[in-house]
Amino acid sequence: MYLHYSHLFFLLLSTICLLTFVAAAPSPASTPVVGGRTLVPHVESNKEIQSLGRFSVAQYNYHLRNGSNGTATPHARPLAFSQVVEAETQVVSGVKYYLKVIAKDGKYSTNEKLFDAVVVVKPWLKSKELVSFTPSPK
């Protein structure tokens, strides 16, 4: 009889421990996924993000002036940076930034457009690279 109650007690204790562990575990929605994108909060006041947006527009204009068709579209005009309105990061070999950039058609234009920019930063190499800069579909 003693053996039977000890097994029952062990089973009950194991169940309580398992339920405690499951209840304390973080939910999948709040746990960042390795290699996944993470939304950057408060981008409007984030100086680093705004600087990367300014960099992406400057690089776009540089490629436009120098005839490089890597990131610039044909017959495009130089842009003037306004602001980054959304950003996500992804840890790769460095940090990849996915930016939603608002830019104007020239310095004095009021016509603003939304662009998707991807910038890879490798701080240990002191390098920033504009990977893509395209009109945003939304």
Automatic annotation (TrEMBL):
Alphabetical keyword list: Protease inhibitor, Signal, Thiol protease inhibitor
Signal peptide: 1-24
InterPro entries in UniProt: Cystatin_dom, Cystatin_sf, Prot_inh_cystat_CS
SMART domains: CY
GO MF annotations in UniProt: cysteine-type endopeptidase inhibitor activity
Family matches, as Pfam families: SQAPI
PANTHER family membership: CYSTEINE PROTEINASE INHIBITOR 10 (PTHR47373:SF2), CYSTEINE PROTEINASE INHIBITOR 2 (PTHR47373)
Keyword Signal: yes
Protein name, UniProt field: Cysteine proteinase inhibitor
Highest taxon in the source lineage: Eukaryota
Domain Cystatin, residue spans: 32-136
PROSITE patterns tied to this protein: CYSTATIN
Family assignment from sequence similarity: Belongs to the cystatin family. Phytocystatin subfamily.
